[in-house]
Amino acid sequence: MRTTIALSAVMGLAMAVPSVPEAVAGPICGRSSVRVLIPAPVPVVSWAENIGYDRDGDLWVSRTLQNVIDRYDAHGRHVGAVRVHAPGSVRLGPDGRMYATSGDNPINMVPGLPLTGRIVSFDPAERKPAVTTIARGLGMPNGLAITADGTMYVGDSNLGVVKVRKNGTIDRAWTARAPKNLAPNRVVNGTGMNGVVVSGDTAYVAMTSSLSSRILRIPLSAPERVGVAADLTAPLPGSVDDLALVGDRAIAAATATGQVIVVDLRTGSRCTVNAGRPLTSVAVAPDGRSLVVASEDGSVAVVR
Description:
Largest sheet: 4 strands, antiparallel
InterPro entries: WD40/YVTN_repeat-like_dom_sf
Signal peptide: 1-16
CATH class: Mainly Beta
Number of helices: 3
Number of strands: 23
Strand order of the largest sheet: 1-23-22-21
Structural class: mainly beta
CATH superfamily: TolB, C-terminal domain
Number of domains: 1
Protein name: Gluconolaconase
Organism: Gordonia spumicola
CATH topology: Neuraminidase
Keywords: Signal
Order of helices and strands: HHEEEEEEEEEEEEHEEEEEEEEEEE
């Protein structure tokens, strides 16, 4: 979650977000449309930080300010919820359980405070899912990606990119070699490690505060060899939040300025859809033909 919650959320409610110039965000995606699926229950207070689908196609929405992850069916009807402290990303694991980061609160960026961030898990098949802590010792965990063997990669806005083994222990040797937060350099041109996706043997990580809305490319076998996957808004700065894989060669990024930017990782070509409100996260819908985006005002929309 960004620290500019109140200002950006109020701006999103007050006006439509202006279009990003084509030279910055790429051409407008052809034949695109945006439709609200879930209206904001309580604008701003119901801030929708992240979204993820379970195996049954139900959508889970992290409402960070309300310490809850809400469940919605395919028609956008509220059908359940679990209590999680300051939830961030919510993801389906290879075992069919849902996993979420907990502690996505700017207070966890304060130096010297205990590291209280966690990864939690629950079974979406249960009528009243019980939440279990999987990992501890994180800072301000937000983004989360889970590989087929259960390994978890976290975008932690305090610690940087963190690898967590299936048993919940932090791989500190790997993490020490990965990009750190608040340690910018020529490649890591920003702070606020956030969205994470994994494709094959590579992790892609977004930084909320980047001079060019940069997506980092991190080889899983050699995290110190971090490179640049894409600069989504160069030459201007931007504010990229969560990411989603689109097929095996493209990434969709949600931005706080209200755009969904889709970039082809092989060619670098981009296109953008203006959603009209500050966005926090993006996911591929079960139909595989549309994207679903969550916003700072608490609503969730379908982008085709």
